Amino acid sequence: MNLNPINFQDKFSRFDDLWSPKVIAEMNDYQFKLAKVEGEFVWHSHPDTDEVFLVLDGKLDIEFRDGRVSLAEGEMYVVPKGVEHKPVASEQCQILLIEPRGVVNTGAVEGKLTAPNDVWL
Amino acid sequence: MNLNPINFQDKFSRFDDLWSPKVIAEMNDYQFKLAKVEGEFVWHSHPDTDEVFLVLDGKLDIEFRDGRVSLAEGEMYVVPKGVEHKPVASEQCQILLIEPRGVVNTGAVEGKLTAPNDVWL
Prior knowledge:
The first copy, chain A, is mainly β. The first copy, chain A, has a domain at 18-100: Sandwich (Jelly Rolls). In chain A, 4% of the residues lie in helices and 49% in strands. Chain A contains one helix and eight strands; from the N terminus they run E-H-E-E-E-E-E-E-E. The longest helix of chain A is centred in the N-terminal third of the chain and has 5 residues, at 8-12. The radius of gyration of chain A is 14 Å and the shape is globular. Chain A starts with 5 loop residues before the first strand and ends in a 21-residue tail after the last strand. The A-B interface holds A 1, 3-9, 25-28, 30, 32, 49-52, 56, 64, 66-72, 74-78, 80-81, 83, 98-100 and B 1, 3-9, 25-28, 30, 32, 49-52, 56, 64, 66-72, 74-78, 80-81, 83, 98-100.
């Protein structure tokens, strides 16, 4: 059995690409993914699942069609299934995403910000 | 839609009982629970699910029958389904637990440390 802790800062030191979640752990059929984000993402939704954003460093806004939530370090938010959202970070921000295995970062909105899925660190 | 961030320190300020997880959020059928822990918990396992421990403040050891993992702030670990474990904190520690709704903190080992389930903050 692997007895090594998963250290977020160690994992973040291993990549620099933005908006490209890296899997660091699985719990049952859910994945824990780290991402560095900066600037505006694309509007998208995940029709089959909620999605958790947990801010580990910096600040992240999540815009909705009818409002926004502003997250700082030590805060999390659950984006409900099917709700359109657009993450925005005015400065670089480090986040932990938690969602079922197989979720694509841009939902059905494929484009230049669509990241390869299931990339492990 | 609720546009309030979930702030861990705000939530921790609302309770002081040890080894008694409080639900702060749900993602699909999974729950996010905060707990303050100190001292030794009981040996137990969860036969049907993995369990995530994420340390938000302090240090936590998770003992296994054949070893242990030591977690500090900013570290997490996934205890595999069915594996006996005993969390131990030499000083008070603040943790985030992630697991399916309905998981009892002591598994099948009911006792004085068995906490009421599904208590929301």
